[in-house]
Amino acid sequence: MKKNFLTRKKVLNVLRITFCYILLIIITVFCIFPIAWIIKTAFETPQFIRNPQIQWMPLEPTLENFTEVLQNPRAMVGRSFLNSLIVAGISTLLSTLITVLAAYAISRFNFIGKNFFAIYLLMINMVPPTLILISMFIFLVKIKLVNSHPGLIIYYTAIGLPLAIWMLKSYFDTIPIDLEEQAMIDGATRLQAIRYIILPLALPGIVSVTVYVFMTHWNEFMAALTIVQKQELRTLPVQIINFLGFERTDWGPMMAFSVLISIPAVVLFVFAQKHLVGGLTTGYTK
Amino acid sequence: MHSYTALRKNSTPYLLILPTVITMIIFSVYPFVSGILYSFTDIKFVGGTATWVGLENFTRLFGGKVNTSINFYKAFQKNILWTVCVIGGQLIIGYIAALLLNEKLPGQAIFRTLIMLPWAIPSVVMALTWQWMYDPFFGLINYYLKELGFIKEYITWVGQPNSTIWPLVIIGIWRGVPFLTLMLLSGLQSIPDELYEAAKVDGASVIQRFRYLTLPLMRPVTMVVLMLTTMWWWNSFDIQRVMTPVLSLGYNSMTLPILAWHEAFQWKHLGRGAAISVISLVVMFVFIIINARRELGDVKESR
Questions:
Q1: A89–chain B nearest CA distance, Å
Q2: With 70 as the cut, is the pLDDT of residue B173 above it?
Q3: Is B103 in Cβ contact with A20 (below 8 Å)?
Q4: Count of domains in chain A?
Q5: Which secondary structure element, helix H or strand E, spans residue A20, and what is its range?
Q6: pTM over 0.95
Q7: CA A275 – CA B102 distance, rounded (Å)
Q8: Distance from A285 to chain B by nearest Cα, in Å?
């Protein structure tokens, strides 16, 4: 009787685990299938892309789509890649710098207006980006920075701040305050305490915030579309949509272009995934 | 909570937040306030001269049979439908994924990485990919739906004036599942195992443990995440913009951010675009205040 009960329990457990795996596999396939489809199409020989019979793997894997998109003067991959790198790179550096200072202040000091400041950083998420964009556009026109990289860079630097500060502040919170106090009792100045004790300890948090901010700026579309209209200044997301206008149904080069755009963000994501996940979750849920 | 008292009060914190405050005043507070003011003007696209027109932008949106007003009501309804369905779908799939990942089955790290991956892909790229999968001639979705007998003829799913919003909702759900899963999983992991052990000893079933243990304990995390995602998806732009051609006004799948953007930058009615954004903001604000007073209180206390 008892033996019977145990086996029944075992069977149930095996069933439960199998059920879990099946559900997990379905969700995972739903999540990664479109990504697999980008890669498959990018390496597919053009005539097979228009094959009415769908293949799961490229019939004859080829780099033709990549050479096509890289050589097409309308695609301007190299130029827009450089533009994206400049805009996202500089704005990320600027916002990280500002973020570290502010996050440290909110985490370590009690000052008048702190609560207001923190609540503002959270509530600003609610404001429609279109509203900010409309007045920023008018402002940039006035100071003659529309259609320029500096215009986009200052916009990005500003919009990335609230979330970045919120995330990094939570990370600083996890570092015991005693460490700095001890160093300062031992005669270190606050600056030295920050430089030699806090920054090394907070590095994973700072890395995760930097990666997150860079990904956001690298992927940003609406402001880039609005603020920069000159073709030679466009960033990648705008350029690929513009390219779509020319190559409406030529999906091979489009997907090759997509792979090229995604590589930096995906590489950074995989590289920083552990820190990113930790940083984000402590940032939001604490 | 830290022992703030141990650190002397001085001017340091103000110096540290000064760059942020300056940046935020110029690039966030000022645009926000001026944006609201612009919604009461007829500010010109070129030259930037503005005349105060009072509530004209708003009355045009709310009243009459003008196209603007019809478009606005349509976009408003679509925006609600879009947000509710996208967030609902994300929440259900995200919860299931998070609960499964929390089972700590062998290989869960690989599953987690794969489920997170769509998050790293630029939103424009993933909108394009879905457009390719929805392709009316060689798209994979048409192909399999026909193979499986769900449709007789290939369908043009997106980009037509009468296209529905449902294909876009699927993309929105797909896009948001990684973030929801990540947040909910971290919430689940912060629940101590001992609680479940104790409940098990007391003879609570799996469903009872979920109903009386997991759900109440997950409420704060869920509410914070829901608040954030609701704000984001209410204002989302990229997917809708990529999936519908440039002059998408009057299109069936148009939402408020798309309407606001087109009014402002395509049709050069900056004031009207601002007015649409202001209305959208007010609706979101009221919604958040009504639903999240308690959770906002939690945020305040925990700091």
A1: 16
A2: yes
A3: yes
A4: 2
A5: helix A2-42
A6: no
A7: 19
A8: 6
